[in-house]
Design goal:
The chain is built from no helices and 6 strands. By secondary structure, it is an all-beta fold.
Length: about 70
């Protein structure tokens, strides 16, 4: 999985960043940023044959994903 950040203040260009522990490739997912948690939360999505109903947290500070437990 590739994740990019946009370097607005520097080069005004996209840069690929680390994605340790990333979920499988998918489309149709939803993502929301939480400044309080310094994170992006990713929900669901599809691949060519499977619908996913899981939530991952991408923490910007550690550049890593973790699968959230559903309660």
């Amino acid at each position: 999985l590739m994740i990019y950040t946009y370097l607005l203040a520097e080069k005004r260009a996209w840069k690929e960043i680390s994605a340790r522990g990333a979920p499988s490739h998918r489309f149709g997912h939803t993502a929301a940023i939480s400044p309080t948690h310094d994170s992006m939360f990713i929900f669901g999505g599809y691949d060519k044959s499977t619908a996913f109903y899981e939530v991952y947290q991408y923490h910007f500070g550690t550049a890593s994903h973790r699968k959230m437990n559903a309660a």
